[in-house]
Amino acid sequence: MKNLVGVYLMVFALASISCISASAQKHKTAAVPGKRTLLFTSSRDGMANIYTIFEDGSRLKKLTSKSANFSASWSPDGRQIAWNSHRDGGWRIWIMNADGTNKRKLTRGSSAGFNYEYHPHWSPDGTQIVYEKWDDASSNFEIQLAKKDGTGIRNLSNNKAHDRLPSWSPKGNRIAYYSNRDGNDEIYIFDIAKSETIRLTHDKSTDYAPSWNSDGSRILFHSDRGGKFRTYTMKPDGSGVKILSFVLASDHKQGWDPRGSNSKTTPYHSLRNGNSAWSKDGKRMAFHSFVDGNKEIYLMDADGKNRTRLTNHKKDDWFPAWRPKR
Question: What share of the chain is helix, strand, coil (3-state, %, to 5)?
Answer without folding.
Answer: 10, 40, 50
